[in-house]
Every structure is written in structure tokens, then in C-alpha cells.
């Protein structure tokens, strides 16, 4: 499967922290696992990764549900290195990535494929009941949120479906360790086994029950 050049262009130019090689790994996984069922993304931000997933959903006849409260993780708040001041809503003194996300997905022509759910991941997870072909975890990146996302969402990955992590850094010099720890937990559970890795993306497949 190849990604249409106009969508690749849109993805490369969208705001966010997803290098093209990792985005294309997401696209490839979503093309395959999206055939089994819906794709769910935890952590939308400005929609960069959602373009890769949405492009795959179109080809696979699937759909992407992407969940975010759009108020930003701690590491992108004012004063932090990755903060983007253009994403502040001065009326509330809070970040708001939702308008940028909406424009990104509209410009890419993916509004039919990408469905935004605006809310806290754990609140949405409590209501969720649909088996997932692929789950992509890229929300809050410290231990508590990654663990909550794993415990709340991974049970919904269907047999043979994929659990995909972003920002897995085995070497602490490269980045935070929480996604790496939860990725190890998923492997140690015996429920998931690794099928591919690209940059900090890890694609696991459900090979047994539980989490
Ligand atoms: N996947 C995106 C980047 C996501 S950045 C891309 O590659 O383009 C992480 C996002 O997770 C932020 O937008 C932040 O608002 C969101 N987030 C953090 N904790 C969350 C929570 N508990 N519930 C919902 N969203 C959360
Ligand atoms: Mg990420």
C-alpha cells in the first residue's frame, strides 16, 4: 500500500511530533489492521498522525476515532520545551489544539474517515465497547496516563488486532521512559507480541486474551 502523495504532503506539513518514517509505519499498520475493525488513536493533538491513520482507513475501508481533551499534555504546557504559543486560547488561558486539528483534517479531505472525540481518554474509555482493529497510544506520556490508556483501551483490541505505541525509548537519553515501561508490560502480559518497529513506533499484535 502506498500513501497518496497529496496526503503524505499534508501529513509532513501538519504541526506535530511524528517524523515521516514513523508516520508511514503507522500508515502501513493501519492499512493492515484497519481491515479487522476501527482504528482508535489516543492523543490527537493537531491531527498529524491522524492523517496517516485516516489515509490508511480510507484504503482499508475503516475509520479512525481519535480521542483528546485538546488541552495539551504537561510537556507541551506554557514554559515547557515543546509548547506552541499559537495553540493558546486566551479566553480560558488554556491550550486548545482542536481548531488546528479541525483545519488540518478538513484541508486533507479526511473528515469522513477521522472522527474526533473531545474529552479525557479515561472518561471515554469507560464508555467504550467496540472491538478495535488497531489501537494507537500517544496521549499523556508519563506513567500514570500511559498506564491508564493501556488499562482502559488495550482490552478492546480484538484477537489478531494491533496495539501500537509511540515514543518508545529504551535508552533514557532519547526520551521519557513511561511508554517504554508500558510497552514492556504489554509484552510481558503474553497477550501481545511485537511484529515491527520503526523509530519510536512499536507495533504489537494480540496473540492471547487479557492485558
Ligand atoms: N498523536 C499526535 C500527538 C499527540 S500529543 C501526533 O502524532 O500528531 C499528545 C496529546 O495527548 C495532546 O494533544 C494531549 O492533549 C493529549 N492528552 C494527554 N493526556 C490526555 C488525556 N488524559 N485524555 C485525552 N487526551 C490527553
Ligand atoms: Mg508521540
Give keywords.
about 210 residues, alpha/beta, Rossmann fold, 7-stranded mixed β-sheet, two-stranded antiparallel ribbon, 7 helices, 9 strands, binds S-adenosyl-L-homocysteine, binds magnesium ion
Question: What this model shows, in words?
Answer:
- With 211 residues, this protein is of the alpha/beta class.
- It has one domain: Vaccinia Virus protein VP39 (Rossmann fold), CATH 3.40.50.150.
- The chain is built from 7 helices and 9 strands, in the order ααβαβββαβαβαβαββ.
- The strands form 2 sheets. A 7-stranded mixed beta sheet has the order 5-2-1-6-7-9-8, with helices on both faces. It has a two-stranded antiparallel ribbon with strand order 3-4.
- Strand 3 (88-89) and strand 4 (94-95) form a beta hairpin.
- Helix 6 (143-153) runs parallel beside helix 7.
- It is globular, with a radius of gyration of 16 Å.
- The relative contact order is 0.16.
- The model has no long low-confidence stretch (mean pLDDT 97).
- Residues 17, 138, 166-167 line the site of magnesium ion (MG).
Please, how many helices?
Answer: 7
Number of domains: 1
Structural class designation: alpha/beta
CATH-defined topology: Rossmann fold
Major beta sheet summary: 7 strands, mixed
The distinct bound ligands, ions and cofactors come out as: S-adenosyl-L-homocysteine, magnesium ion
Morphology: globular
Instruction: Give the ordered list of helices and strands.
Output: HHEHEEEHEHEHEHEE
Say which CATH homologous superfamily is assigned.
Vaccinia Virus protein VP39
Low-confidence stretches: none
Question: Assembly state here?
Answer: single chain
Question: Strands of the largest sheet, in order across it?
Answer: 5-2-1-6-7-9-8
The count of β-strands is: 9
Beta-strand content: 15-25%
What is the helix fraction of residues, given as a range? 25-40%
**End-to-end CA span:** 30 Å
The average pLDDT value, as a whole number, equals 97
Amino acid at each position: 500500500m502506498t500513501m497518496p502523495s497529496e496526503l503524505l504532503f499534508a501529513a509532513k506539513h501538519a504541526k506535530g511530533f511524528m517524523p515521516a518514517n514513523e508516520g508511514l509505519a503507522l500508515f502501513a499498520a493501519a492499512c493492515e489492521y484497519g481491515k479487522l475493525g476501527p482504528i482508535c488513536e489516543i492523543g490527537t493533538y493537531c491531527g498529524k498522525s491522524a492523517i496517516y491513520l485516516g489515509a490508511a482507513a480510507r484504503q482499508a475501508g475503516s475509520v479512525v476515532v481519535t480521542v483528546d481533551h485538546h488541552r495539551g499534555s504537561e510537556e507541551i504546557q506554557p514554559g515547557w520545551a515543546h509548547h506552541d504559543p499559537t495553540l493558546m486560547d486566551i479566553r480560558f488561558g488554556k491550550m486548545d489544539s482542536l481548531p488546528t486539528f479541525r483545519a488540518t483534517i478538513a484541508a486533507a479531505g479526511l473528515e469522513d474517515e477521522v472522527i474526533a472525540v473531545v474529552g479525557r481518554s479515561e472518561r471515554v474509555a469507560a464508555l467504550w465497547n467496540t472491538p478495535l482493529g488497531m489501537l494507537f497510544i500517544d496521549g499523556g506520556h508519563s506513567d500514570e496516563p500511559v498506564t491508564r490508556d493501556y488499562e482502559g483501551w488495550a482490552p478492546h483490541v480484538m484477537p489478531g488486532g494491533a496495539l501500537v505505541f509511540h515514543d518508545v525509548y529504551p535508552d533514557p537519553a532519547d526520551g521519557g521512559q513511561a511508554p517504554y515501561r508500558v510497552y514492556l508490560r504489554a509484552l510481558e502480559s503474553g497477550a501481545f507480541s511485537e511484529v515491527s518497529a520503526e523509530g519510536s513506533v512499536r507495533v504489537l499484535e494480540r496473540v492471547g486474551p487479557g492485558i
